[in-house]
Amino acid sequence: MSTNPSSAIFPTKPPFRKLRGFAFDPITSLDLETAEINHITYKVPWEDDLKPGPEGEYIKVIDRDPASDATYKPVDLNDPSILATDGLSPSESNPQFHQQMTYSVIMSTIKNFEKALGRKVMWSPLEKVVKNKHTYEFVDKLYVYPHALRDQNAYYSPERKALLFGYYNATPKNAGIYLPGGIVYSCLSHDIVAHETTHALLDGMYSRFMEMTHPDVAGFHEGFSDIVALLQHFTHPEIVRNQIRKVRGELNTENLLAKMAVEFGQSTGEYSSLRDAIGYSDKDGKWIRNKPSTKDYDSMLECHDRGALLVSTIFDAFLAIYENRTADLVRIGTGGTGILVPGEIHPDLVKRLADEASKVASHVLNMCVRALDYCPPVDLNYGDYLRALITADKELVEDDVHNYRIAFINAFRKRGIFPEGVSNLSVEMLCYQDLQDQADKQAFSKSNFEFLRRFKERLSYVGDRKTIFTETQNFIRGNKLKGITGLHASLFDTNGKATNPKNLENITGLVFSEQYADLGIRNSRTYRYSPSIEIHSLRIHNRTGPDGNLQNQIIMTLAQRSRVQVKEDDNGGIHFIPLKKSSANTSAMTFRGGCTLIFDLNDLTLKHAISKPIFDSCHLKEKGNRKLSLNKKRLMMQYRCNYGDLADKMNFASRRHRLSEPFAFIHKAKTDII
Amino acid sequence: MSNVNSIKIRMYDTGSVGDCFLLIFEKDGNPSFTMMIDCGGFNTKAAAVNLCVQDILNTCGGTLDLLVLTHEHEDHISGFNLARDLFNQITVKEVWMSWVEDKNDDIAQILKTKFGKKLKELKVSATKALIEIKKLSGITRNIKGSKERVNISRQNIENTLALIEFEEGKKFHASNLSTGRRTNADAMKYIRSKGKKIDYKKPGEVVSQLPGAEGIKFFMLGPPREKDLKFMKIEEEEDEMFGIAAAVDGNDDDEQGDEPIMETGISLTNGVSPFAEEYQLKGTPKSVFLKPYNTENKWRQIETDWLEASTDLALALTDLTNNTSLAMALEFEGTDTVILLPADAQSGNWMSWQKKDVMKALKKNGGKDTNELLENAVFYKVGHHGSHNGTATHSGLNRMNNKNLVAFMPLIQAKVPKQWGGAANFPAQALYDELIVKTRGRVVRTDEGAVTDSNAKKLRSQLSSTEKKEWNNNLVNGPNFFEYTVRST
Question: Which of A227, A378, A430, B37 could cysteine-pair with A594, CB 3.0–4.6 Å?
């Protein structure tokens, strides 16, 4: 170490790096009412080895601007003059500030995810296919291109592991506060950056959430990303404080926050799901909130609407919780009447309300992210997500004193979102039940649990993401050199027979018995006589709840794939015929089942199995020679989304040509053609 | 002098997607005036066009009273190059084009200059992008999803280039064309010199009492003419298209067409950065910084993404030229019988017919405004080969309520180029369905004749016996054309 005496006085690293930036986007600064809150200081986790770019552990900003044929100098956030001033000052004309802003928002979003999940986040691995053999490589850094496009567009490219942001000329038509002909940079908008980052984080957890198997799948990626962007605003108390002070008079708190959300959303233009979902201002500028209807879930099928539906649902829950938590404050502040006297609100009350709002926002954001661990790995619908939310929260927080869970259930219920297969909407019913049946519990043998424990022990103190990735791969696939038996091998014996096929099937909804071939499922590449099962992920889940209860769990996600041919008969009936292996049928549809298993390492039990069965599990018999058939209900929904009546509603793409990137949507050219 | 009381309209098969029409005006069954509108086909062969022009030559007896060239696109003018020898045998008394083709029109010059600049800029970038994307093909081979992405990107950029090529009109696909017959410009030059008289038409004008065409009024509807090119630039307006949820809030009925006093902002130019020069990396530091990006991480490059959206831009440019279409309506004077000929007008052109000044001028000069003309249309030449934005809703088909409406759609579906959206988008399904309902099945397509759509067949069978008789009498299936006779009522 250095002999510099000062190093002894400050031996610890700074906990975070302060970086100035826009709370919303540069446009917001031009409005007198919002200017003062638009500049905030992001506190992002300190990275020791931050290189110019910025390039840190998670992301690498490369400021290449192909349309200008230019590359901009990478900002060095460790430069003393930048460090001393909390980063570069917000400026539209300095591309280095753009790099800093993008970095700040991405890192804040990552921090929120890591906090909620209790582990390091991973980007989706690089999948290579050589001679039909799939390999997965670790992707350490997400590439970030702040000036990639000249277009009103920004997207996450799942296959390049990159975020691309565009910039464009604002036109007089949408002028308003814009300068006609001025340039709008999407990388300077907190919401856009947070939204695209969330796409990437979500894809890192569940790569199958992009498969169009249900109208909710299309909506989930978009809606969830909007929720993260929106709630992140509310976590900054200084923003909320200003707004609460401003709109005094009508302290109908519900209206207040909703209106704020819409204003937050407006600045991003196309990310207008908020505006559409929550409410609108009428001709006289009077604020009107949309009324949810129990028909919403069945009627809002178009993908934008679908995303908006999720946003408004979650936001509704957020409002209800906030109201519940502040009712007493409002009464105290109004001498018990709940009606304010004219004039300014007491600054202390403003502060307390703002603190509550930001606390609630951070709790709700946490809940939403944490719930991801409890989602099935394929074919997610909003009902599943509600169950995941409730289960995740109940596991961590025993006593729901503030009725968070009820607020969520109500918000979903009001929009007609009901999970499948539950008899009522109580917390108890919605929560995934602990497995009770002894036979089910024992479906995973003792050796399976020992395997999981070894995995846990191996990774407990590893902080390096690459090591985590490699070790996880070793445990999933096995590594003879290191003497690790893979997970696959611990599920099947050397002859390729599953130890308890029937029980495993009951639990996972995937086929473990010999009849897999009849269902269009191919055999495993390593074990020629056993069905192929993809092990998507193996994750450690370590969290301490507010009551001090420690969770010590491992989450495993499995998936299975079947190929079916779709045949239409003369009466319009649709039939799905499983394809035997190696039949090269190009019109075949890939159909997946999947399951998320949550193991408790404290008492060595399988706690939950959250399944999207590949076979019809309703009429399952217990006899040994039972015959399985494909899950017609799910197949039918997938068919409708891909080829049937729902097909046009499923994607955001342009009518006239295909886009190469799934998350890129064509916005109507806002820029003048000539 | 007696009046024209019927018009025979021939829609020719030029061998590909394209327009070629001959209108034969008759007084009591005797031809008195001939009018030809456009002659071309996308990527078509001389043989097919020659057959059409031969028939025109025979029918008009060597003299056309009027030749209308609606706009400068291959699918409307290539015939004048391909069948030049036959055209040389035809005399044309008068040529009409839109004001956009008038070299002395100041607004036309603004339009052409801006358009040319944009086209050139786009071509340079897209050509470069194609080279870049080709380099990626090998590199991304083994990465899941990459191959497909690169292929689609490449396809999009190739489509952009194809559209640019179409706009430039420099590459005619038929071989062996001699000098002076190879480009759109050649064809335009030929047509300009062809007429004894040439006239450039502006919206609001109404022409009547043409010798031989007495009793017919020609109403000029488009192309829109404003300094800021406001309507010209509207390629598609959601509210004016069939089958698209009207998501437009507020009524955008303002008539502001004034140019701003000051040009603000920076207009982004390809290849020029919006940031100060000092921020750019240059020389060795640049190559060091970009080394991984250009070598082992080449698969993560973003060099061409910004141009993928250019397919939309290129389409918008094509639509802009379509919007320069000379759109007109022909009325049998004093009757409620109107023939609507919008050429390839897109949303903005249609919408501009509703402008107050255009409506007023038409009413004053011809006695009917746009809506009265639409209301009385009995023959509709479907705009832009049946594309989604070639027929407007509110400003168009919704107002055509005459129970005798017949539609002719110049479309050979199998020949729609992929860069236009391919056969899947022509005709636009929602429009097609509506058209069939409105005409009660009386839609005629170049490739099908009376359309074979099952609903159309059903609706045709439900026509009254008089209507059936008229339909059968008026519709003629020629060897390479379909003909319909519109009679004054």
Answer: A378
